[in-house]
Amino acid sequence: MHIFRRAHDYNGGMYHVSIETHWRIGTRGGPVMDTTSLLHLLTLIHTSGSILQAAKVVGMSYRHAWNRLHEAETVFGAPLIQKKRGKGATLTRLGNTLLWADRRITARLEPTLESLSSELEGELSRSTSDTTAPLRLYASYGFAVAALMERINQTALPVELRYLNSMESIAALSQKECELAGFHVPVGHFEAETLRLFLPYLHPQELRFIHFANLNQGLLVTRDNPKKIRKIRDLTRKGVRFVNRQVGSGTRRILEWLLKRDHISSAHINGFETAEFTHAAVAAYIASNMADVGFGVETAARQFGLDFVPVMQERYLFAVRRDVMEKPTMDRFLAILRSEEFRQHVNQLGGYDATHTGRIMRLHEAFGNVTEALPACT
Known about the structure:
By secondary structure, the chain is α/β, with parallel strands linked by helices. The chain contains 14 helices and 16 strands. A hairpin with a 3-residue loop joins strand 5 and strand 6 (88-91). Helix 4 packs antiparallel against helix 9. It starts with a strand and ends in a 6-residue tail after the last helix.
C-alpha cells in the first residue's frame, strides 16, 4: 500500500491537507496494478448494475471500461464481474472482496491519516504566516468528532487534531500538551469505574467540561441477525465469530467490564483477540463476512448496513482548561458546536443525540453524585 498526500486550497492563512490510502496489487514477478480507478469503477458497477452507466460516471468509454476490467482479470486470473440476462452486471466474489478490502483499509487508517493531515496543516501554516495559535484538540475518535472537524475546516478555524484514546487525551490535557481533550464515559453502569481512571488527571478547579453528544453502544451484527445474537452471553455460543477493539480502547474496557459483571470468560469467545482500531473497522470486518458480531457504536452499524442490538449509552465530552475558555478561538469553537445545523447533522448520523451539545459544566455538574462518592474529588 502507498499513501499519498494532496495539498488543497490555501484559505485564510491555513492549508487544508488530505492524506488518503492508495494501494497496488499484483503477483510475484507479474504485472502490478494500481487499484484506484478500478475500485471506483467496481463501486459504480455494484451500485448501478451497469458497466455503461459506471463508465459514463468516471468519464470512460464503454470499451475503455471493459478493457480496464479485462486488464484486472488478467492480473487476478479470475473474473471481477458477471453479466446475467435481465439482471445487468454484478460483482463476483472476488470483486466484492476487493471493495470490502478497500473499505477495511480506509476504516482502519482514517483516524491516523486525519491526525497526520491536521498536524501537517498546522506546520505549513506556521511556516508561511503569523497565524493565530491553533486550539490543539486531542480526542478519542468518533463519527461526530469527524463531522465536527469538517465544520471546523469549512470555517478555517485553527484547530490541530490528534486522535488518541480517552485516557491518553485526558493525560495530555493534564500535561498542557493540548487545550481540549475529547473522551467518553458510560451512562449509569461503569461510570464510576471509568471516572476513577480519569480523576488523577481531572483537576476540578482548572477544568471545564463541554457536553458533546450521547451515543449508543452495543452489538454490531450482520444484517437480519441470522445467528440471533441478542445479549453479551451470546458471544460465547458455538459458531459465533467475534471481532474486538484494540487493547487500551475505552470500548474494549467497557466490554471487559460487562463480561466480568456477567461472569463470562473471554476465553470462551471465538475471536476475542482479533482487534480493530476503530468502530468503522469493526463494522467493515463484519460486513466483509469475516465475523458475525462486534461491540461498538450504533453509527458504525448504520453506515455499513449492519443491524444493531443496544446495550448501553455513553456521553462524549470535551475537557478544556479554564483559561482557554476566554480565548476568541474558543468562542468560535462553541458557536460551531451550538449551531442548529451542526446539531441536526450529528442527530442524522444515527445513534447520536446532540440535544445538549455545547453545554458547559464544572466537574460536579458533569458527573453529579458519582464524583461525590470518589475520594479524589473531595
